[in-house]
Design a protein that fits this description.
UDP-N-acetylmuramoyl-L-alanine:D-glutamate ligase; alpha/beta; 6-stranded mixed beta sheet
Length: 242
């Protein structure tokens, strides 16, 4: 699952908080590339104002008749963030889905490859204690400082590129997926292990066009309102990452 705990913050409050932080950028460091006054907790607080996973999954359910709707929206966010889908080919991604055990499969895979001397990235969900656990370099959650830097760079870029034809900010899980791609590219990992959030065909991680390996862990009946009520239907959804 991609569940997380969210603060009860209204969108007007989020806009106010964003304005306050952006003013701090301008006065302290000349821009978002060197955020000095916006803390890790500020970043987490703003992240928690994004569309909740529950409402996002309802949106997926409504739009699941056309999976391209989801993938095309994610590609737009990726482009607005300054990347193209072709840029993700550099990451040598191992893309893993499944009903049970996909997180463990990813963790074992990352651990084995890291012990062969490769610099690894690992994107997973949910987190246990802190959200930065979802994005790891060489097995370790990225630091609060690195999380804060990449969060505000991405947030600022998406704010700068919004217009009337699109929602300015992606949902919580989509945002973190975008952020993970940016972190892995900036940190120049040798490979990235990416865990699907839910399903496969409609999942926002499925903008990856050239994974070096796709993996499917054990299958079972889960999320039937989104993925179908038989193993065959669920398998079709999971197989969408190939």
């Amino acid at each position: 699952m991609t569940g997380a705990r969210f603060l009860p913050v209204s969108w007007p409050m989020a806009e106010k908080f964003w304005w306050e932080v952006s003013m701090e950028w301008q006065s302290s460091s000349g821009g978002p590339s060197a955020v000095k006054t916006a803390s890790f907790q500020d970043a987490v607080r703003m992240l928690n104002t994004l569309q909740t996973n529950a409402s996002y999954l309802e949106q997926v359910k409504r739009e699941r008749g056309d999976p391209q709707t989801q993938l095309e929206a994610m590609e737009v966010y990726l482009a607005r963030s300054g990347l193209q889908v072709e840029d993700l080919d550099q990451l040598n991604i191992i893309h893993v889905t499944g009903t049970k055990g996909k997180g463990s499969t990813c963790a074992f895979t990352e651990h084995i490859l890291r012990n062969y001397g490769l610099k690894t990235g690992f994107f997973s969900s949910p987190h246990l204690v802190q959200v930065r656990e979802r994005i790891r370099i060489n097995g370790q959650p990225i630091s609060p400082e690195l999380f804060t830097k990449h969060f505000w760079r991405l947030y600022h870029q998406l704010e700068k590129t919004k217009d009337g034809s699109c929602v300015s900010m992606p949902a919580y899980f989509r945002f973190l997926t975008l952020m993970a791609f940016h972190v892995f590219l900036q940190e120049k990992v040798d490979l990235a292990v990416v865990e699907v959030g839910i399903g496969g065909a409609y999942d926002c991680t499925n903008i990856i066009r050239k994974p070096v390996v796709c993996g499917v862990s054990s299958l079972g009946i889960d999320h039937t309102s989104l993925l179908g009520d038989t193993v065959e239907k669920i398998a079709w959804q999971k197989g969408g990452i190939f």
